[in-house]
């Protein structure tokens, strides 16, 4: 009888320990899930900050990070035009790019949202270990090329609607020296082609928009956002 009772006690104790172990594992998994969701919310917040700048043409034009993100080739084109006294044309080009940025947001948002949604626990751990700014760098590595390819047709459509390439062509006229300079900048060997200039400007503008977007998001993540030690601990340790 005592043997039966002892067996029951051992069995009951084992069951309790097993249940406690399961509860601990469940809490750990749940806490990790909370941490991953916190990372997702952080990146949603930082990229929304970027989108708010892109959606507002005036904010786009006056943002120093957007200006710094301009590709060197586009800077050279603008410098060439300014040296000809065509400063107003450069200002128009920048305004048209700002307008294009506004229209590109509708294309960019779903791509970013999907990448954020796909973040796994492994990704979250890597982001947390990388420190501030690592979250946006993760998104940039995942989506940069896709974003540029996706928004370029939209950007080109907007720039063509405003006729920026035609304005540049008309302004430089028959000056073969200037045409050759522009073609050298964009790497166009066919000096009679205007299509290359159109494609190049839309490509450079798309790169500026996407890279500027990530730079704004990263700046916000580094300087404004805050990942608490509790969230970091839950991601790394499940506590």
Order of helices and strands: HHHHHHHHHHH
Helix content: over 70%
Radius of gyration: 27 Å
Structural class: mainly alpha
Number of helices: 11
Q: What is the straight-line distance between the termini?
A: 44 Å
Main sheet summary: none
Mean pLDDT: 79
Specify the overall morphology.
elongated
Would you kindly provide a written description of the structure presented here, covering whatever features stand out?
This protein has about 240 residues and is mainly alpha-helical. The protein has one domain. About 85% of the residues lie in helices and about 0% in strands. It contains eleven helices and no strands. It has helices spanning about 1-55, 55-60, 65-70, 70-85, 85-115, 120-130, 135-160, 165-170, 175-185, 195-225, 230-235. The protein is elongated and about 65 Å long. The model is unreliable at about 1-30 (pLDDT under 50).
Please give the structural blueprint.
Layout: H1 2-54, H2 57-62, H3 64-68, H4 72-83, H5 87-117, H6 121-130, H7 134-162, H8 164-172, H9 176-186, H10 195-223, H11 229-237
Helix pairs in contact: 1-5, 1-6, 1-10, 1-11, 4-5, 4-9, 5-7, 5-8, 7-10
Question: Could you give a short description of this structure?
Answer:
By secondary structure, this protein is mostly helical.
Key features of this structure:
signal; 85% helix; DUF4197; mainly alpha; DUF4197 family protein; 239 residues
